[in-house]
Amino acid sequence: MLSKEDFYSMKKNGKAISVVTVYDAAFARMAEAAKIDMLLVGDTAANVMLGMDRTTGISMEAMCIFTNAVKRGAPNSYIISDMPFGSDSEPKAAVQNAKRFVEAGANAVKIEGLPLESLKAIIEEGIDVIGHLGLLPQTAKNFKQVGKSEEEAEKIFEQAKILDTLQPCSIVLEHMPDALGKKISQAINSPTIGIGAGKQTDGQVLVMHDLLKMHPYKLPPFAKCFANFWEAGVNAFCDYKSWVNEK
Ligand code: KIV
Q1: What would you measure as the largest C-alpha separation in the chain, in angstroms?
Q2: Active-site residues: which are they?
Q3: What is residue 247's predicted lDDT score, i.e. its pLDDT?
Q4: Does residue 43's CB lie within 6 angstroms of at least one atom of ligand 1?
Q5: SS3 letters for the chain?
Q6: What is the pLDDT of residue 27?
Q7: Which ligand 1 atom sits closest to the C-alpha of 44?
Q8: Which of 7, 28, 179, 201 could staple 22 via S-S, CB 3.0–4.6 A?
Q9: Which residues of the chain have pLDDT under 70?
Q10: Which fold would CATH assign to domain 4-245?
Q11: 198-242 pLDDT, tens per residue?
């Protein structure tokens, strides 16, 4: 299994880090077979698995169930669990929740924004942390690109530098101008994982349901599609229905 040190070496040696979200054993098994470097049990599970409008609706309990399933499907992969909204705002609770994820099979936890005391407390417990800056879906008012103004870009850049001093396992950079993704990636030691942050980050992450096109909705502007599971799935169900009707 890869480790934090491996991800830092990959950055140093210019080898891109692949990350994909997974939420269950079947798809985790596929991602492990494809040797994806990190599997993220994202709180996008709220949207893509539970049909909710926002990620804020998901609970620790649900995230632990998804994490456990991913661990069963991909026992040899590096697994990150997303701390759900509110689970990391206070250091003591943050550590307890991070430990629950580790017990469920996670190697690291991901935290949106900069709850500094919680981040430090979790790292002090010896648990790997992934940062998440730029567009923060848990608290965003809308899902537009952030960091377009000089002032906002500078704020995100400063946050990245602060986070870098904690030596996190990596930092997700979401939906920001390519130039800002590049600037941050070049200025800090921590590996950066982009989603809509250009091609110059140290790695990329995509939501599985976008990557495989598992839904009929419009994809986010930065998502890239590598299959059409929606079409294949609907066709297979139609064929099945015809087969049943014919008998
Ligand atoms: O929850 C998630 O899927 C994420 C990715 C968008 C990075 O945080």
Answers
A1: 66
A2: 174
A3: 86
A4: yes
A5: CCCHHHHHHHHHCCCCEEEEECCCHHHHHHHHHCCCCEEEECCCHHHHCCCCCCHHHCCHHHHHHHHHHHHHHCCCCEEEEECCCCCCCCHHHHHHHHHHHHHHCCCEEEEECCCHHHHHHHHHCCCEEEEEEECCCCCCCCCCCCCCCHHHHHHHHHHHHHHHHCCCCEEEEECCCHHHHHHHHHHCCCCEEEECCCCCCCEEEECHHHHCCCCCCCCCCCCCCCCCHHHHHHHHHHHHHHHHHHC
A6: 98
A7: 1
A8: 28
A9: none
A10: TIM Barrel (3.20.20)
A11: 999 999 999 999 999 999 999 999 999 999 999 999 999 999 999
For the chain, give the number of residues. Answer: 247
- Specify the pLDDT at position 39: 98
Q: How far is the CA of 82 from the centre of ligand 1 (A)?
A: 8
